[in-house]
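2024-03-11 09:14:02 DEBUG pipeline.ingest accepted 1 chain
2024-03-11 09:14:02 DEBUG pipeline.ingest length=331
2024-03-11 09:14:03 DEBUG pipeline.predict start
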Amino acid sequence: MNKPKVVIVSLADWAGSGHNVCRAINSVGEFECRHITTYDHAYEFPRDILVRLSVYDKTTQPEDLVKDAVNSPSYGEVSQLISEADIIHLWNTFPGEKSLMSVGFPIDWRKVKVVTMTGSMYRDHHTAINKILKEWNNLKVTVQDALFNFNHEIPSVFIPHAIDVDFFKPVEERDKSIGSYRTTYKSNVRFADKDIAKLSVILRKYPDWKIELNYSMSWKERIEKLSHCSIFIQDISPYIGIWGRSTLEACVLEVPSMENYSQQVLLNHENILGKPPIIKIDEDTFETKLVELMESETYRKDVGKKSREWVREHFSYPVIGKMYSDVYGSL
């Protein structure tokens, strides 16, 4: 018996989230899933199928997008997958959105059954998103941040990131280095400059420690470097949201992680994800907790091992794949 076919379609897959969800769904085996994205990513995250489109702005004409798409080597395969799909699942985009319709995909909008919104997309555009989803009130909405459920305008199902646990191999030998994508990325990220300054001041007292990683590396380069770090820091300054892929990838590599996440996040996730091993910090406690980690290798190893098991229990492919399969099965 053939499995029902699901196609996840996203305009972009900025952190490889949609691609990993697709693989997680296939690992469960109840549905046959493919993932299509229409923009390449500068940092080379893993992907399934790419329809290469030029980055466009308000001056871009629909015919330019159609020309880009049709000339893409994968366009024929993509068109066939979409036309044969039983369920179309939109990722960080909306039904009937101009840019999706403009590329000439043969989307039967009656097959669009599920929409997923991730962190920054929803935080930055939640008013417009809520309006569109209200108009398409027959859709299942899933979110990767349970904080979105605090807004009850749109009922949603919280399903966290999918992590390929077995892909990430912890190492024994680690450097005295601190991995931090956020604090070394100086543009387009809230509070980054403040965080860099705070971290730099502390490390002056520990000259044998250094800051590793930056956001300009490819995904594979960053994972390789991260695996040899001894500590990972996501945010020192307040930053709304649940732990993103960067923090979870550090956890699964057994790198103890620190982040300023809100009490709301903690309370809203404990009944779903248990008590996280991620060390909660704020501007007042950051230095004390960081120094405690830097000065005890035993403590770092203990937090690291708990972190990997936490990811396996709550974010691994079989766990997340089953959650999406249940959503599809309920349609």
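2024-03-11 09:14:41 DEBUG pipeline.report The chain has twelve helices and twelve strands.
2024-03-11 09:14:41 DEBUG pipeline.predict end
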